Amino acid sequence: EVQLVESGGGLVQPGGSLRLSCEASGFPFSSYWIHWVRLAPGKGPAWVGCINTDGSSTSYADSVQGRFTISRDNAKNTLYLQMNSLRAGDTAVYYCGRGLAVVAGFGDYWGQGALVTVSS
Amino acid sequence: QSALTQPASVSGSPGQSITISCTGTSSDVGGYNFVSWYQHHPGKAPKLVLYDVNERPSGISYRFSGSKSGNTASLTISGLLAEDEADYYCSSYTSSNTWVFGGGTSLTVL
After folding, report:
1. Which among B47, B44, B29, B30 has a CA at the least distance from the CA of B88?
2. What's the rounded Cα separation, in Å, for the pair B89 and B104?
3. Which one is predicted more confidently, A41 or A64?
4. Which of A50, A61, A113 sits opposite B1 (nearest CB)?
5. What residues of A are in contact with residue B20 (Cβ under 8 Å)?
6. What are the chain B neighbours of A97 within 8 Å (beta carbons)?
């Protein structure tokens, strides 16, 4: 069974940092791109960024470029989202989503979400 | 990375068909056949219902179909069921090597 399990969410002050993890199981993790998407309260999904299979290439939304970093450890089947210089506008539930196998796109499987609250 | 444009809401009666549009630019929707559609219920992760404009993931009903013309993609749901009531979002790959979502459409099944 494909599973993605996020952890690391919590309350952080503006300007602070937080690292989310996404542990995968049930599929060959190192063969799949992984994306991060966030859902702010009362809003629709927003794409955050993605990472390729071996971690050599990443891409980010303008809103997080330079502040967020996506990495992966294929030996541990785990994806990371390092979030720095957090702002109130980053408050959201963050989901990791699996990229599609042989085509562009993502989201055939998702984690359960990790709530990040940025507030003083 | 401007959000793709979708109607705020659509509605239909059970058994009818509805279509939701998703308008972008030649740098996203119009430039690539990498348009996806997601069904979203508040508090849950989005559910992928179409990818590559008109491909259905395993387990998605044939009632969901997609198309694209120029800079506008469309999702059609035929034979509406009460369970189809949800928010729907389109997403497209962009020329900046990023992805962008639409603003979302609330579907009401009357």
Report:
1. B47
2. 5
3. A64
4. A61
5. none
6. 45
